[in-house]
Amino acid sequence: MAVTTSSFLTSPSLPSLDTVTDTLVSHYLVTFFVSVAVGYVVYQRVFAPLAGVPGPFWASLGKGWLIVRARKGDLHRELIRLHEVHGALVRVGPKELSIADLDGIKLIYGAGSQFHKSAWYSVLKGHRTFDPFAERDPHIHSAQKKLVIRPYAMETLKDLEPYVDSTVYHFISRMKEKMTLGEVDLGKWFQLFAFDVIGEITFSKRFGFMDAEEDDGSLKSVESTLASASWLGHVPWVFWTHDYLRPWIGNWLGVTNRTGSLMQRALKEVEERKKRGTDRNDFLEKFFRLQREKPDQVTDTAVISMAAANITAGSDTTAISLRSIIYHLLRNPQHLETLRQEIDTARRENRLSDPVTMEEAERMPFLQACIMEGLRIHPSIGGLLPRDVPRSGCVIAGRFIPEGHVVGTSAWVINRNTSIYGHDAAEFNPSRWIKGNKAEMQRYFLTFGGANRMCFGKNIAFMEMTKMVPTFLRHFDVQLTYPERPLKEKNFFFVIQEGLIVNLRERGDEQSNGGAEKEVY
Question: Which cofactor does it need (predicted)?
């Protein structure tokens, strides 16, 4: 039978050589990348130094798990859950562990520790040359700390107590005005108060936020900085790539506020202060005095940097702590009643000023216990406080961890350790600080960081808390407006609460000075 031309034209044609080549290359590439991916997964899960350490599956393969948790703002709660399930060690990254082992915590954060701050902090530091908080080099940190630590000592801070008094009483006066209008967002007012105190003790003037009943954008700048840094710290190369490309693409990262708008705010305040002068011995005056003593070491940049640090950290830590103390007292009326009795007894015995002085507050054991418990149950810092494993490696909870890895501990995890704080460690119970082993509890108390890198502003926060809490409760009966609603939490390095809405009533046994504001000139 003859083959026609039409049947030949319609018969299947053979693929071209180029098509065959492209198909084979595609198959080989797919096979190659799949093999690499499978090999990577097998390595991380079976052969890597941290293989076998329990934790989320995706955390073992990359930084994505940490980034997601940081952006969601719930890392602190997730770490508590994971350690309850898995124990002392939890793998949170291919080369990163969360630690809840007590001996390991002493090794990492104790005096003389060889575990230095990880690259996470490089994002917060940026190009700042003077930054004792974020500085990773231990020798530079030590030198910077020695230069500026003196103004933050408690004995030195007592010079500033009268100016904190005036701001506390201004807060009380504003609350007396607001309570007649119905519910009060006490959490917001604590934030405004904390900012105004920082202005008063750093620049000899309040920022005026309590008068305006809002801030000037500073709070948004601080929160934007921390929200951005909380996830960028896990992938610092993203920050530095953005930094390199910034002249062409502009600024897309909130963390730059720390070296941008907040530094500019501090610079503006410093320049204004130089012009107007002051007779107060505030933080700026203390920094200027240090600068006069050591002009080659305490530069203008250092002064501005420390002033900006007061704004960034000093306001949030105090506001968070005040919210925690008052909220948990309101949720536990038996402890609130015990504290009220201590306050009222001291007042009747004429052992209480208005506002309460630090010296008087230090002689009130249950007040001090309530403050410590509020700080324990809701630490202001919710991150892992990551540290690089030293060159020789380390052994924690029986596991060898080599150099090149990162270990860290969350205060939210360790502050709920039942072997330290008792079987009710998840509950608010100030009595543990009176009846329990206080020295042992303080040894592992990481609310203000580890011993070798303790937060400079710790004493500022304590001064404000020890004065505000008893003075506020002396003046007002307080009730939660919505007791069925828990506070909302956002963990962007600082665990910030929302929703502390209360109703206030002036106490009938009030013995204040008639509501007249106590100002300091």
Answer: heme
Q: pLDDT of 289-300, one tens digit each? A: 888 888 888 888
End-to-end CA distance of the chain: 118
Q: Is residue 1 part of a domain?
A: no
CA distances from 444 to 60, 61, 221, 503 (A): 28, 31, 32, 36
Q: Classify burial at 169, counting beta carbons within 10 Å of its beta carbon; exposed 0-12, middle 13-18, buried 19 or more.
A: buried
Is residue 493 in some structural domain? yes
515 within 8 A of 176, measured Cβ to Cβ = yes
Contact 385, 408 (CB under 8 A): yes
CATH number, domain containing residue 495: 1.10.630.10
Residue 116 in this model has a pLDDT that exceeds 90: yes
Number of other residues whose CB lies within 10 A of the CB of residue 130? 21
SS3 content of the chain, % helix, strand, coil (to 5): 60, 10, 35
Q: What phi and psi values does residue 379 have, to the nearest 5 degrees?
A: -65, 145
Range of the domain at 458: 64-506
Supply the Cα-derived Rg of the chain in whole angstroms.
Answer: 28
Closest to 240 (Cα-Cα) out of 116, 406, 119, 131:
119
Q: Establish whether 370 is an annotated binding residue.
A: no
CB within 8 Å of 23: residues ≥ 6 apart: 15
